[in-house]
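Subject: sequence -> structure tokens, single chain

Hey, anyone have a minute? Need the predicted structure for the following. Not urgent.
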Amino acid sequence: MAPLFQHIITLIARMMIGLYFIVTGALSIADWNGKAGNIAAKLGFLEGTIGEAGTTATSHTLLAIAIGVALIGGLSVVIGLRARVGAVLLIIFLAPATIIMHNFWAVSAGQMQGEVLIFLKNVALLGGVLMVLAFGPGGLSADLILPRRRQMGQF
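Reply:
Had a minute. Here:
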């Protein structure tokens, strides 16, 4: 495969993966109380003052962190600026969120199919983000315009 074609495919893949996290983060801002309520419902052990729609201060804090990580990590991956750092952020966020929020093994039979599908979708996203971590952003990325860090002894 020609190198330019590989760089273009890598860019498209990065954009597809990162865009998911950017859109999800933006939609979560738009439905802040609903998302905070989902977190509080899944994490019944959260302590804090019960607020609007059964949410807690902790669920709002976790939601703010999740949105921040999704937006920063997603943007990093899309533009290829420190994409590996962005990928690590997304992995740290997505792996536990998938296990906690989509625990299909602990829901009723009526909810199981939906939770299995979301769980597997998140596993596929993790696979894509792991590819960015392993292979970097490719040849068409913002990292290419940044000055390279020099090792000691290099000029």
